[in-house]
Every structure is written in structure tokens, then in C-alpha cells.
Design brief:
Layout (H helix, E strand, L loop, with lengths): L1 E2 L6 H11 L9 E2 L14 E2 L2 H9 L3 E7 L2 E6 H9 L4 E4 L2 H10 L6 E4 L3 H11 L4 H16 L6 E4 L3 H13 L6 E4 L2
Parallel strand pairs: 1-7, 2-3, 6-9, 7-8
Antiparallel strand pairs: 2-5, 4-5
Helix pairs in contact: 1-7
Enzyme class: transferase
InterPro entries: GK/Ca_channel_bsu, Guanylate_kin-like_dom, Guanylate_kinase, Guanylate_kinase_CS, P-loop_NTPase
Pfam families: Guanylate_kin (PF00625)
């Protein structure tokens, strides 16, 4: 599992993993949030209505799910289970709440925390998005501080000071010997 605070660059690092290591399988999460410019349904996320998300929860179709900044995110369980059953690693991008759910359900999963090089850099990255009003940015910063405080709950911390290096480090963790290696992240 790959997790980390909003704005740390989880999506950027996962995109770099896909670019540099196309053989790595990355789970596509579901979300109720609106699409950002350039996002493609089924590639970046599966964008769902609240009712569709509720049905997945009711049917136990999510490995984990969480509400974050007023939107819900989750990992469809079936594709991950199929991948792991085939003996192949899975990369999940999930939020802190989701990482805790996965830890409870699959203690053998490797949880990786993506950290910013500094708090100031994280603030700059969040402000640089320009996709959210200041009140939402402030809420994300409060949540980000709490998430940074939880980094000790993770097996490995990777600092995102260089996207290519962080992507390669993540892939090397996926390649490490394990009977069921799952590295995940979320936004």
C-alpha cells in the first residue's frame, strides 16, 4: 500500500511507476469526487455516484474505503485478490484510513508512506494545485499534519524529493521477496 498526505505526489509517483515500469500492476481506485482536468475514468479513478459507491460498500466489494475531504475513495477488492492469488504484486494508492483497514485485514501487506521532503514543500505543492479553494486547502493541510504524524505506523517511509528515485524505490519494494506483496497508496 502506498499512502501519504494530500499533495505529497502519490499520483505523480504512481504515474512515474507506470511510465518507467509498465509491467507493474496498479489498482484503480473508485471515488465520488469530481474529475480533475485531464483525468480519465478507469485510468486515474473509477468515478462513481454516491449511490454506486454505497452499493459497493453494501456488497463488500471494497478492500478498504475512506472519506477524505468530503469525498469517498475505495479499492475494489476483486482485482486485487485476483492479482495476489496469481502470485503477482499489487500497488494500491490509498489514504491513511484505508491503510489502517488493510493493515487490520491483511497484516502481511507492506505499507509504504510517501513523505514530502519538508512541510514547506508540502504546503507549496498543495497551494500550487490551484484546483481547490483556500478553505479546502487549509482543511487538507490540517489532515496532512495528522497523516505525517502517523508515518510510524508504516513499514517503510519513502521521501518524495525526486519522483524518479521514489518510483524506483517503490518498485524495488514490490520486487522484494514476499508470499503476498502488496504496496498501496491513495488520494
Amino acid at each position: 500500500m502506498l499512502s501519504g498526505p494530500s499533495g505529497v505526489g502519490k499520483g505523480t509517483v504512481v504515474a512515474e511507476v507506470r511510465r518507467r515500469h509498465p509491467g507493474v500492476w496498479v489498482s484503480v481506485s473508485v471515488t465520488t469526487r469530481r474529475r480533475r482536468p485531464g483525468e480519465v475514468d478507469g485510468v486515474h479513478y473509477h468515478f462513481l455516484t454516491d449511490d454506486e459507491f454505497d452499493r459497493l460498500v453494501a456488497d463488500d466489494g471494497l478492500l478498504e474505503w475512506a472519506e477524505y475531504a468530503g469525498n469517498r475513495y475505495g479499492t475494489p477488492a476483486a482485482p486485487v485478490r485476483e492479482r495476489l492469488a496469481a502470485g503477482a504484486p499489487a500497488l494500491l494508492e490509498i489514504e491513511l484510513q484505508g491503510a489502517r483497514q488493510v493493515r487490520a485485514r491483511a497484516p502481511e501487506a507492506q505499507l509504504v508512506f510517501l513523505a514530502p521532503p519538508s512541510w514547506a514543500e508540502l504546503v507549496t505543492r498543495l497551494a500550487g494545485r490551484g484546483s481547490e479553494p483556500p478553505a479546502v486547502q487549509e482543511r487538507r493541510l490540517r489532515i496532512a499534519q495528522a497523516e505525517l504524524d502517523a508515518a510510524g505506523e508504516f513499514d517503510v517511509v519513502v521521501v518524495n524529493d525526486d519522483v524518479a528515485r521514489a518510483a524506483d524505490e517503490l518498485v524495488s519494494l514490490l520486487a522484494a521477496p514476499s508470499s503476498e506483496r502488496s504496496v498501496g497508496a491513495s488520494e
